[in-house]
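User: We ran a pulldown and think these components assemble together. Before we commit to crystallization trials, I'd like a predicted model of the whole complex to look at. Sequences follow.
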Amino acid sequence: MITNASELTSTPIIILVEPQMGENIGMVARAMANFGLRELRLVNPRDGWPNEKAVAAASKADHVIEATKVFDTLEEALADTQYVLATTARQRDGFKPVHGPEAACRQVATRVDQRCAILFGRERWGLTNEEVARADAIVTFPVDPDFTSLNIAQAVLLVSYEWRRAEQQGEKLPFVGPETLPAQKHELYGMFDQLEDALDRRGYFRPETKKAKLIDNMRAVLTRPGFTSAEISLLRGLINSLDRFSPEQPKGRREED
Amino acid sequence: MITNASELTSTPIIILVEPQMGENIGMVARAMANFGLRELRLVNPRDGWPNEKAVAAASKADHVIEATKVFDTLEEALADTQYVLATTARQRDGFKPVHGPEAACRQVATRVDQRCAILFGRERWGLTNEEVARADAIVTFPVDPDFTSLNIAQAVLLVSYEWRRAEQQGEKLPFVGPETLPAQKHELYGMFDQLEDALDRRGYFRPETKKAKLIDNMRAVLTRPGFTSAEISLLRGLINSLDRFSPEQPKGRREED
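Assistant: Here's a predicted model for the assembly, 514 residues in total across the polymer chains.
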């Protein structure tokens, strides 16, 4: 039970203060679900709750929508929390630390036994100074100073993304690319032998005085990529096809095939 | 003038492939503007262009909307690019490196003299394998495996955010070796055409059901190195020799020459 509780409390609560559009609430739920956040609270939503437009916009984030709790005041919504971040695009007077999303989410991720919440304001004008004053710290985004307005779902998305990264201490991607270890050199040299033999039999290296330079260049081009074993196998297949098989019709007449 | 050109080319182009909803295009423009991206390209947008819903959803990102360029094919949209990232939520077979948004954007930010582009697929089903095969590397997001679907504007937002962070972290190198600048993609595609034609005339791509996969793999292997113009010229010379000239004696009898 302690393990479960501890797991739950490491995940921040997202709190929307007086959200107006159901669509935005749904998109917030979806953004949260993308990065493993589960707990959404609404303070005095304009169109009440539940909200059909929110359900539609949430796509398949039903688990977030169904667990959403509604409060009359921010004070009530924060009652059980221990560490609160307020998002804002504007500088505020006061003594609060200001973090970017990454640093803010590192703060949250390290508070594993605490209930943390992140506040987002109204679509049109954000949080009041009084609301910001309830937070322990401010989060703002490294936006272009000429174009600072993030919509609410985008702001939640960035915070959720950074929380997941902080919580996992790096990027745990859903899949990784193929092995990109370069092959052992003997594999590369085997390809050189095959290719150079095929070219030599076609007179590519004439005149003889140029041969050494041509080979140097060719090897340089094929060495720089650091081809893997699998890539070299594929390339040797291509070379073999070009070398061993005759074309079925002259080049350029393919469209008459 | 050189300074301006250099500054422009350090900022990636966002390319949306067959976007369906004008609202999404507008939200993409807005997300780009938030983090200082300027250049949007559309490949074959469903509802044509210009699009009133895109303008409305872009909020005040008019400068992005007005500069948007439309192309009939992805190939044309990529013709002048040198390094291409494809975003995808699904694992693909093949030989491409896979990065998270942060690592991917560090790649872009260090390529100060290169035209970089980031591809985003259709709302419903993303990019085809053939489209992904045109990219140098894959970007995927560290999402919850149970809830992986990001909408297109959200995906653009995360990449734009990471690009701005990377670009501002002083990771831009003052110069790069010109000898390692990747060629423009049309040069690479010219090599693909030549090679695939030569192989096709030899029956390499049979049975027909395997052809698309074989081509994807081949293109992936030849895209990853980021060959320069000079390297592509050399490789095309090799392919031409193998394709057009018959061997003077059977393979394996070279020692009797």
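DSSP finds eleven helices and seven strands in chain A. That may be worth checking against your pulldown data before setting up trials.

User: Thanks, that helps.
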